[in-house]
Amino acid sequence: MLNTAMSQPPAAPASPSASATSAAVAESAASALRDSVRRALHHLLRNPMTLAGLVVVVLLVTVALCAPWVATHDPLRQDLYATLQAPGAAHWFGTDEYGRDTFSRLVYGARTTLYIVALVTVVVGPIGLAVGAASGYFGGWIDTLFMRITDIFISFPSLVLALAFVAALGPGLEHAVIAIALTAWPPIARLARAETRSLRKADFIAAVQLQGASPLRILVRHIAPLCLSSVLVRLTMNMASIILTAAGLGFLGLGSQPPSPEWGAMISAGRRYMMECWWLVAMPGAAIMLVSLAFNLLGDGLRDIFDPRS
Amino acid sequence: MSGLKKGAAAWRTRLLSTGATLLGLLVLTFFIGRVMPIDPVLAIVGPDADVSTYQQVQAQLGLDRPLLVQFGHYIGELAQGNLGTSLLTGNAVSDDIARVFPATVELATLAIVVGTALGVPLGVFAASRRGRLGDHAVRVISLAGHSTPVFWFAMMGLLVFYAWLGWAGGSGRIALAFDGAIPRVTGLLLVDTLWSGNWDAFASSVQHIVLPACILGLHSMAYISRMTRSFMLAQLSQEYILAARVKGLSEAAVIWRHAFRNILVQLLTIVALAYGGLLEGAVLIETVFAWPGFGQYLTNSLLLGDMNSVMGCVLLVGIIFVTLNLISDALYQVFDPRMH
Asked: For the whole model, what pTM was predicted?
């Protein structure tokens, strides 16, 4: 069973003959959209876990955008009279060894996390889609070459490969983003390839081919849009592992550099005081876990909505 | 006979593609080692050296030759097991890795035992309760395990079981008192302490390994239980299960004697892959527990910019991964009767 958006590919606005019946196309596209929105809402109401994931993700974005208003203190301001304070009314999640407010640092850390996730996703999605779709559509030596390269990248655990890239590039937030992106595209490429292969012999592709569309046009206007829903689902689930890899790099001191607040780096800094000041480690770790769990739940739910096959 | 031939042909392609992947790994590690911003020549001669000294050292290191020649040299050295010299310890990287690797193997092996022992029954349980409370509970546990940063989990474990409850040994592989007192035979402390007959040392090393192994194991449990569940569901929807139920077999017999027996091969391949995944967890968890294994060696060399060691470690991880993939394929071929 394909979902509604996928079952009406010929109605895509790109097909040249469609201009005559553009009103009908717009109508059917609108009804398809209405349909999937209704199904998504239906699913959300019946699956509290997906809803919970969505709520946490929305909360994360809100907190990151409104950090100056959510935070109770300046995340960088040191207060050497109030170091290592336990959680209380003045500091909800306590303070660190420089007297900085842990809660406010967590709030600003949400920005770093979101920045990494968004940047990696924006880089990885198009690259994975392009490599996978080209590989699946052309087949032959292009396919062999691309998939061999993909295999090489997949044959490392992502953290270890990211470590190697950061080691070569030097520590820092931007370098961490590059390293994570370099390790995160292969699964997307594989997925896009599989989707493309199932589409490339379809009648509507043959029809556009006969109309003389160039391979580039077919890939961009006809195949890529149909791979998009499963790629987006996969990207959402990937966000969880991006967060974990970023936190791991931060923990090892290779991600964003002090004093900027990053959750993994906060855990690493709090480690020295862990035995007496549990909150320094417990709070940022709980934040990482919560957010990554939320992306996992959301991804799971999106898969159920867009891909009833599994 | 033709099936056998076909199998042999399939194996030839598989070995060829594995060989290609390995070559790719070498190109990748070589390339990463060359794009680093730190100039290895400058690191040796210092910033004050004149041009002729610089060129001399560059020639000694072979860095003045074309990239392709350098790559050939790199491959040639690798073929002799030479990974270069570690800046950190001054030893050959291959010797260093041989020294630290048993500690990681010990940890990962125990962890995979824990992960399998917990994950498989949980997965079977979830599949047998599909859609009911037990299934959802297992799903949440598995997703939570999937979403927890393993280093944070390790620190929380250290905090609770070491600092608060005092049940587990602290960091390191063994109490300081036994450090260096155990003759090294296999490098696996649990084996070496038993071998030397020192029961106190054995107890101490058990006490130290339990917590990190359990935490790594719980991490792989998430993956194993999820895969077990989906394998079991695939079996339970088949007609032979219906036949067994119609015959009046008990549910336990249906699940364990019929369905479970048929997923054993798939499980074996998954466990092999999970074992490789533990290496990633080991890199982070060894830092937390000051476990003197491969992960700690990798991170230490990384922070000091010791590229020879880093690339040696990364290459090794890649090779282990590729090998485990090949082994899990082979297991499938050998044990699954449908493949014959």
From this structure: 0.84
